[in-house]
Amino acid sequence: MPENTTAEERPGNLPPETRSFVGRRRELARLDGLLDPADEGHGRLVTLVGTGGVGKTRLALNAARRAASRYPDGVWFVELSPLRAQGLVGFAVVEALRLADRSTSPVTDVLADWLADKEALIVLDSCEHVLPDCADLVRALLSAAPGVRFLATSREHLGHPSELRVEVDPLPLEEGEEGGEAGDFRGRGGRPGDALDLFAQRAAEARPGFVLDEDSAGPAAAVCRRLEGIPLAIELAAARLGELTLRELDERLGERLPSPLDLLAVGVDEGPLRHRTLRTAIGWSHELCAPVERLLWARLSVFAGGFDLAAAEDVCSGGPLPAGRIPALLERLVEQSIVLRHRTDARRFQLLDSVRDFGADWLRALGEERTLRLRHLGHYRSLARGGCTEWNTGRQLLWCERVITEHANLRTAMDCALSERDGPTALRTAADIGFLWRHCGYLRDARHCLDQVLTADPAPGPDLVRALWARAAVALLQGDLDGAERWAAVCMAAALEQGDAVAVVGASYVTGGHLLLRGRLGEALVVLTGTEPLPVRDDWLGSAQLQVRLALSMTHLLRGNLTGARAVADEVRAESARRGERWAGAFADCFLAQIDLAEGDLAAAARNARTAIVAHSLLNSTLGVAHTLDILASAVVATGDGHRAARLLAVGQRVWERLGSAQLQSPDLMSARRACEDLVHEKIGTEAYTRAYEEGLAMSYERGIAYAAEGTPGP
Questions:
Q1: Are 544 and 470 in contact (CB under 8 A)?
Q2: Angle formed by the axes of helices 443-454 and 407-419, to 10°?
Q3: Is the distance from CB of 385 to CB of 432 less than 8 angstroms?
Q4: pLDDT tens-digit map of 88-114
Q5: Are 342 and 306 in contact (CB under 8 A)?
Q6: Strand 75-79 and strand 120-125: pairing?
Q7: Number of CB atoms found within 10 A of residue 268's CB
Q8: Euclidean distance between CA atoms 82 and 408, whole angstroms
Q9: Are the C-beta atoms of 397 and 586 separated by less than 8 Å?
Q10: SUPFAM superfamilies of this UniProt entry (predicted)?
């Protein structure tokens, strides 16, 4: 990677720092050495181990940011806390790496193949509840990918022979103290340490103007001492200074918290002692909440990853908690640092793991756990149904954004539907969510949930047709042509049995699509032209109708009928524009760019390709982006700009790598790519080609898309 590459241009997905980071200089210095890829003397798996609330995640993120420039293939943060079921860690890593995996191979094999030649750092956050899955995945990837290192956070170590454990202790009260070795925090007249610095900063947020001085330093130190220097406990306590004086805070904590000596006297060792201290501190914050605030806290624990106000009102209201009170109560919990605003979206909220766990315990104690999980399922099932109903409209892009944002909650809802053993509900949920996941880039998740419901012999009806269509369509995008053929046949039979003419048209897409990809173009043409054209609907079936026409356009194109291909693509583009939908329209623009290129209209080819790239990227359609980038590079080099074409080829190569299947393994597409590369070499020479290609490889995905779509100046 060129030395002038900025942090924003490097690959990776580290979230931005939203609050000041305090202390940990010693730990960060040690991690600087352990995470240095040039130092082969250290192990490639480092695990930050410590009790809940001690700050493992924030330490890992800051260490990863400091190390980012040393990993040319990026630093990637994988958040595991939203996972509710086993077997999903690999899925979470695929999503974090933005791999739009098309293959049907085991996810570990896909990751091993993609990471084999990469130099990357992967941060696995909150491993303790999926520890066996994490250990198995890391073990496989350490063997398969010698340039990859892992930084994990967990309450327990992963158990790998080469694992290096870094104990994350509480913050010291005074400078020079080692965290965890001064449990009583005896004052020695030194400079205030990290624990007091953290308390002072968070106290100033709760009570503007707060500073540590002669009057406040003693009580503040006492509070930190009582809380064992645990950062989360300190932050929760400091947030109370909006309503309590510092001395009142100290006195109330003194009444609530047992002393370390009391706990040690009954044989409790240091780890559980600190866990109990944190639980007690959270419990004390819980006691200070009003009853309805406690109830909301408990009910919010059902969300995975994050939630917005509308979801909180719908899922958490009821009984003594009317929906109209939830906005004010939610703000109160934010003020008390119990609920946090999301790192990247101020309209969304989240709970830290320890706080969520406490709320979940209370929800169980209240006897409301199943009720709230079913309400959560109902909310996200309704959301998915709305997305399918309006997918083929001008709201499509908004729905795609919601599906991506709510992915963790949709996955949790799907898990709930499957665990309830309610066949019709599970089928309906999987049909809706599976369709949306297929179109928003989550192919593995879609296949996983659809396979589970379709092997349970579901009852005939519209839900079954939708689920079968989505399953066959997933197989098409994954290149699983045998699976596509099998599921397409069942889908067509179910559509004919249902007697819905539009469903039969939709089913012809998956039937004709697998024939098209197998190269059986004459048979595909018969299927795709053999259904009666019907008014295009607004829902998922309307999208299927447009995809039938797209497959027909591609069939004409591969048969050399450019006039027929253009007529159908123009028809789809016009219908897409009239509706405001983008998914089918982006593929129509892509096909038109191919036709323009074949006919020698280079300006039109570049224009249509750029339009397609923008829409594909907005809809998380990595396959569309990759394919269109190759077309754009061919158009650009044909105009004489070999340097830009070389960069575009490199950007496209990065995207194809994420798909795990270069040019879909299509001989025609691979031949076109090689012809473009040869022409660039001829135009600018090998040395210039290599330099420009490396500049393209150095671009982040976002920078590369902007460079391709907007025609921004080259490096």
A1: no
A2: 10
A3: yes
A4: 899 899 989 888 666 677 889 989 988
A5: yes
A6: parallel
A7: 16
A8: 6
A9: no
A10: P-loop containing nucleoside triphosphate hydrolases, TPR-like
Q: pTM for the whole thing?
A: 0.85
Which of helix, strand or coil describes residue 671?
Answer: helix
Q: Average of pLDDT values for 237-255?
A: 84
**Sheet order of strands, 307-308 included:** 307-308, 348-350, 340-341
Phi and psi, residue 100, nearest 5°: -85, 70
Question: What pLDDT shows up at residue 104?
Answer: 73
Would you give the DSSP letter of residue 166? E
- 443 vs 460: CA distance, rounded Å: 24
Dig out the tokens for 26 from the structure: 């010693």
What does the alpha-carbon distance between residue 374 and residue 387 come to, in Å, rounded to a whole number? 20
Q: What residues contact residue 339 under an 8 Å CB cut-off, 6+ apart?
A: 297, 300, 330, 333, 349, 350, 351
Is the CB of residue 297 less than 8 Å from the CB of residue 312?
Answer: no
CA 298 to chain centre: 25
The conformation of residue 227, written as its DSSP 8-state character, comes to T
Give the separation between CA 308 and CA 316, rounded to whole angstroms. 12
**274, 243 in Cβ contact below 8 A?**
no
How many C-beta atoms lie closer than 10 Å to residue 235's C-beta?
A: 25
Give the integer Cα–Cα distance in Å for 46 and 267. 30
Contact 233, 198 (CB under 8 A): no
Q: Which residues contact 62 (CB under 8 A, 6 or more apart)?
A: 17, 21, 24, 28
Helices (H), ranges, 145-212:
194-206
| Contacting residues for 387 by C-beta, under 8 A, at least 6 apart | 399, 402, 403, 432, 436
**Sign of the four-CA dihedral 136, 140, 142, 148:** negative
Task: Read off the pLDDT of residues 259-287 as tens digits, 9 standing for 90 and up.
Answer: 444 433 333 344 455 566 677 778 878 88
Q: What whole-number distance in Å separates Cα of residue 698 and Cα of residue 651?
A: 9
Half-sphere exposure of 137 (CA within 13 A, CB side): 29
Find out whether 179 and 193 touch, Cβ atoms under 8 Å. no
Q: 10 Å Cβ neighbour count for 161? A: 7
Token pair of 215 as six digits: 């009057």
> Look-up: residue for tokens 């001064």?
182
Residue written as tokens 């707060």? 210
Alpha carbon distances (Å) from 530 to 466, 489, 544 = 21, 16, 15
Would you put residue 585 in left (φ > 0), alpha (ψ -120 to 50) or beta? alpha
Statement: residue 509 has pLDDT above 60: yes
Amino acid (1-letter code) at residue 53: G
**Strand partners for 166:** 48
Structure tokens at 107: 């996810």
Contacts 24+ apart (CB under 8 A), 667-674: 668/558, 669/627, 669/630, 672/630, 672/634, 673/630, 673/649
* Alpha-carbon gap, residue 597 to 604, rounded angstroms: 8
What is the 3-class SS of 538-603, one letter each residue? Answer: CCHHHHHHHHHHHHHHHHHHHCCCHHHHHHHHHHHHHHHHHHCCCHHHHHHHHHHHHHHHHHCCHH
**Direct distance between the N- and C-terminal alpha carbons of the chain, in angstroms, rounded to an integer:** 13
The string of pLDDT tens digits covering residues 144-176 is 999 999 999 999 899 888 899 999 989 988 765
β-strand 45-49 against 148-154: which pairing, if any? parallel
Q: Which of 86-95, 515-524, 577-586, 650-659 has the lowest mean pLDDT?
A: 650-659
Please check whether residue 403 is in contact with residue 410, taking contact to mean a CB–CB distance below 8 angstroms: yes
Q: Which domains does the chain have, with CATH numbers?
A: 7-167 (3.40.50.300), 194-286 (no CATH), 289-367 (1.10.10.10), 617-715 (no CATH)
Report how far residue 230's alpha carbon sits from residue 241's, in angstroms, rounded to the nearest whole number.
18
